[in-house]
């Protein structure tokens, strides 16, 4: 929170301001205002409108005819880990199929790492993401798979974000390979008790080779009883019960959603669960893209996130995911930018981030481009020129 004496700053001469408030500007879902200004007061947005009408402030920043949009909300990452999986990626790109088992490599490295090593790795990737415009991020445990290793991962993550997810049910721990039921008991019992104080969310990888629908239901229900809110890794590698379970349990998000039946799409359209698409995973595994167009046309709320993790999607770049979503998943540039900002906020059930509205958090990205469309139009180009987080310019 800001202190007692805050200063006000106006950013003027914004060619295109993305507000995500459809009552503003062009009345589109992005609420685009041309020739715009934004006033920051402390850690909040205090005013938006046309530059010519901007009020007087203590400080003034000239955007120079560039675009400003809300900081990205990356609602799905796995950043508490050690080691990397370069060889696995290289092998896969040389023709071997992806399977969930590669996680075991990261589990071994993570267990062997010190707290300091894990935190240094986490902050390295957070800084990397921040330089690319991510001002809110969620991250998960899931590479410890013991009571002590899962709880320490969450403790370390909680020092850096409020959006912490307990994913003891990432895979069945290799220590329980012969007795998955005993591992589910651990995840819903002693491990949950140790982890719940450090987390807001509970997640499960509902997939062949990980956890089936009944196990996922038991794990999420146990988490809910301890005050955690559910989200699910659902329908990534194959069709399955994950998406419909997510809607049934009012999970904030069903993540991946690559293999969906019509009934899955209908369920998402009728519930409050966001479909979070993670194209970095399909890119990095040469897998089939999720069909964003089908979801959007059905009225489903879609979020875009990185899934940043060392195995299947080692990118921290939301702009890269926006470009993929536009090129290969049928999203318009406007839809992709909305999904990576307001959509991510919806997937975290937040209304204070992901938009530029009076009273929302002053998390802003200044692009070295006149329009947000350039995020897809100029893929791979480092367009993020400035970042404000909680009203403070950090890039
Ligand atoms: Zn994931």
UniProtKB/TrEMBL annotation:
Origin species: Streptomyces prunicolor
Residues reported in the UniProt entry to bind Zn(2+): 76, 78, 233, 307
Ranges for domain Amidohydrolase-related: 254-372
Reaction equation(s) it catalyzes: 4-imidazolone-5-propanoate + H2O = N-formimidoyl-L-glutamate
Protein name per UniProt: Imidazolonepropionase
Signal peptide start and end residues: none
PANTHER family per the UniProt record, alphabetical: IMIDAZOLONEPROPIONASE, IMIDAZOLONEPROPIONASE-RELATED
Keywords tagged on the record: Cytoplasm, Histidine metabolism, Hydrolase, Iron, Metal-binding, Zinc
The family this protein is said to belong to: Belongs to the metallo-dependent hydrolases superfamily. HutI family.
EC number: 3.5.2.7
Keyword hit for Cytoplasm: yes
Organism domain of life: Bacteria
């Amino acid at each position: 929170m800001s202190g007692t004496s805050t200063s006000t700053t106006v950013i003027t001469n914004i060619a295109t301001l993305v507000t995500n408030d459809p009552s503003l500007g062009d009345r589109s879902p992005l609420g685009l205002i041309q020739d715009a200004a934004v006033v920051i007061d402390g850690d909040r947005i205090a005013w938006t409108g046309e530059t010519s009408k901007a009020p007087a402030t203590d400080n003034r920043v000239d955007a120079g005819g560039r675009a400003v949009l809300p900081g990205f909300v990356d609602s799905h990452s796995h950043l508490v880990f050690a080691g990397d999986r370069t060889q696995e990626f290289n092998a896969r790109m040389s023709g071997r199929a992806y399977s969930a088992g590669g996680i075991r490599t990261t589990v071994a490295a993570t267990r062997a790492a010190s707290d300091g090593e894990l935190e240094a790795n986490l902050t390295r990737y957070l800084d990397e993401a921040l330089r690319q415009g991510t001002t809110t991020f969620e991250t998960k445990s899931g590479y410890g798979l013991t009571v002590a290793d899962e709880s320490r991962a969450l403790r370390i993550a909680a020092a850096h974000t409020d959006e912490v997810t307990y994913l003891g049910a990432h895979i069945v721990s290799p220590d329980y390979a012969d007795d998955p039921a005993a591992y589910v008991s651990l995840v819903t019992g002693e491990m949950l008790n140790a982890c719940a104080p450090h987390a807001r969310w509970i997640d499960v990888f509902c997939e062949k080779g990980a956890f089936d629908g009944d196990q996922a239901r038991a794990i999420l229900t146990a988490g809910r009883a301890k005050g955690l809110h559910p989200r699910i890794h659902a329908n990534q590698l194959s069709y399955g019960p994950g998406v419909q379970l997510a809607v049934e349990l009012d999970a904030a998000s069903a993540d991946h959603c690559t293999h969906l039946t019509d009934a899955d799409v209908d369920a998402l359209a009728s519930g409050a669960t966001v479909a979070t698409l993670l194209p970095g995973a399909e890119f990095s595994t040469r897998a089939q893209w999720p069909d964003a167009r089908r979801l959007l046309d059905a009225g489903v709320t879609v979020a875009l996130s990185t899934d940043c993790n060392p195995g299947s999607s080692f990118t921290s770049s939301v702009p890269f995911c926006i470009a993929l979503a536009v090129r290969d998943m049928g999203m318009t540039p406007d839809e992709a930018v909305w999904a990576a900002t307001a959509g991510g906020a919806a997937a975290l059930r937040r209304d204070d981030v992901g938009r530029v509205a009076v009273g929302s958090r002053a998390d802003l990205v200044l692009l070295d481009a006149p329009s947000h469309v350039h995020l897809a139009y100029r893929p791979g180009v480092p367009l993020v020129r400035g970042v404000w987080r909680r009203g403070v310019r950090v890039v």
